[in-house]
Each structure stands twice: as C-alpha cells, then as structure tokens.
C-alpha cells in the first residue's frame, strides 16, 4: 500500500524537555522549561506584540519557562528558534521552581512526582 504525503510541512520536534535549563538567544534571560506546546498556542494579541523583525514562525515548538534575569523572575513563552541550552549549571532564581521541581542535578531540574503525567 502506497503512503500519501501530507501537503503540510511537518512540525519540528521539540529540542528541549521539561526541566531543561535554557537561555534566550537574543535577550538576557534564562529559565527552566515547565511546559511545551508543539506549536504556537498563545493569543494573536500576544504574537502581534512581538516586533515584526523578531516575530518567530508559529509552526515550531514553544516553551513555557520559569525565567529570571538580573532584575526579576517571571513566566516567559519562547519559540524554539530563540532558545539555546544553558550549560552554566547554575540554578534558576524563580519562586515557583520548588513547587514544580524537587531536585537540580547536572544542570537539569527533575519534576516533582505529583506533576508527572
């Protein structure tokens, strides 16, 4: 039986996983991933607020991060193309880290058992 090919391009697979520590490629912040969307799943208003020259494609994984920088901690939503692995092995300074993760080992956080699916 012949396989037909879909006309749509396949969505790239996620490069990072829950608990991975990453750094933004362009902006000065890092974070730990706590959720992954296989493709863009935020509001159009949020997307339109990104300057057009920096606006990423929607058909790639997007990551929810517990993020921090020198001034504050916050939740960030970032496209895969704008993330790189953080190899500093430094923990993330975010107040929600301890409620989601129980251990930080070799640069990676481990999800608390009650949050695993």
TrEMBL record:
Keywords: Stress response. InterPro entries: Clp_protease_adapter_ClpF, Hemimethylated_DNA-bd_dom, Hemimethylated_DNA-bd_sf. The keyword rRNA-binding does not apply. GO terms for molecular function: DNA binding. Residues 13-112 form the Hemimethylated DNA-binding domain. Gene3D superfamilies: Hemimethylated DNA-binding domain. SUPFAM superfamilies: YccV-like. This is Heat shock protein HspQ. It comes from Sphingomonas piscis.
């Amino acid at each position: 039986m012949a396989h037909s090919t879909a006309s749509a391009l396949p969505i790239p697979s996620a490069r990072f996983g829950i608990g991975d520590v990453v750094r933004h490629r362009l902006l000065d912040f890092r974070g730990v991933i706590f959720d992954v969307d296989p493709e863009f799943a935020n509001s159009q208003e949020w997307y339109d607020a990104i300057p057009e020259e920096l606006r990423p494609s929607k058909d790639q994984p997007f990551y929810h991060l517990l993020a921090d920088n020198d001034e504050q901690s916050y939740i960030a939503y970032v496209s895969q193309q704008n993330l790189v692995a953080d190899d500093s092995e430094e923990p993330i300074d975010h107040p929600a880290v301890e409620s989601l993760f129980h251990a930080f080992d070799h640069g990676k956080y481990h999800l608390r058992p009650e949050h695993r699916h």
